Amino acid sequence: MTGIRRNTSPDGERRSAATRPRMLLPSLMFTALSVSVISTLGAPMVPTIAREQHVSLSTAQWVLTATLLAGAIAGPVLGRLGDGPRRRGAIQGALVGVFAGSVLAAVAPSFPLLLAGRALQGLGMGLVPLAIAVARDYLPVERMRSGIASLSITTSVGAGLGYPVTGVIAQHLDYRAGFWFATLLSAVALVAVTRVVPVGSSVPRRPLDVTGATLLCSGLAVILLALSQGVDWGLASAATLGCLGAGAVILAAWIVQALRARHPLVDIRLIRNRAVLAANTTALLMGIGMYAVLSLVNLYTQVPAAAGYGFHLSLTATGLVLMPISLGSITANRFASALVSRIGLNRVLPLGALVTGVDLVMLALWRDHASVLVAGTFLLGTGVGAAYAVMPLLIVRHVPTSETGSATSFNQVLRTVGGAVGSATISAIMLAYTPASGDTPRATAYTAALLVTAAASFLGVIAALVLPPRRSTVAEPWHGAVARGTGADTRSEGSEWGIVRRGSGQ
Fold it and tell me: Per-residue pLDDT tens for 212-241?
């Protein structure tokens, strides 16, 4: 069977999907991990690409910027397309784009075509929320809780796996081999999605908010462009300030438009829900810390021996130092359910942010041994994994089924924006601490950068503690989910992490 045909009855389609529940979650996990690994492919290969394409290092950094921009733009659109009968088609379309981009990047004879390929690969960054929406609709109840949490941490797990893989490729093979590897991953993911993922959902088809998509994507693109290029342009330059100002104006116009639209791209009223706001604010702040540490550890471990600090490790060894992020995320995911049962869903989020902040302070003050970096990356994965595991659970608990893809996509976009802010902040700090006569920053640059990102994580702790509602229940009518045939409220902190199905009697 090449796919699961949509039944005229939502319950009928759910029963059809349930015939292969053991294949659905692994397929979704593989797809999410694949696109996460592909999104990190460029980082360790920047020096190699700069050398072989005969461009400067700052120009070669666009292989990261292009993916980031495309992911931020594609996320909200894919999220809305995924909230309805076009869900599998949206996933397939994004994977086709990733596949085409991987092939183009692998064979590109010029740097502009390589950038175009990397931009197409960025479409995959919007697929995790769609995978979460599929899991919410079609996984058996007893597997839905762990499934959503596992899918949410694929961002950090994929980053931990992607760095050592691309490190080996960059050190021992031509950089094009990395993009052929991405081609293989995306092709397998496309086959798995086509064979296993149900066609759509029980949510009626709604028109795409083209105006809202244009405004949101344009505003995000302009702001991310300023954040990623601000150091090269000058933080106080007219180009940087102009982009930031223009982006703010465009996003303000998007908010006004979204409040007036009948079918907005992202429902702003749901984002104002205190629990959803807590998840989104913490995602933005923790994204700063996560992506910052990935960059800082990558740089610190490869500092030349003449600098007097760092470890002068190879790309492969650096990737192994970063791999514990994946192990920490997986460990956190396994214990998250027990933590929610003991301390509640709203308390796991600030706990994850706290672990991340403490870890960043530790790395800022004590990093003289490689074993400390390994422990630090493991703790980073633990903190980020715990927080990322509960973010979508908080969101889907407080939004209707029809908004799952859109709301979780917006959360993913904020993680990306946080990563861009962290990257720009680190670049500015590194530049400020680099002597005019050299190209290697002083060791104190890393201390300052880690303390700044730690402050962002601690702000995330405050947001996660202050913003959520004090009571575990909410008043909106769609939150009072009904147990099968009983009319009883089935939501509790220890049962499915407060997640229940809505709109299907389940």
Answer: 889 988 998 888 888 777 777 887 899 999
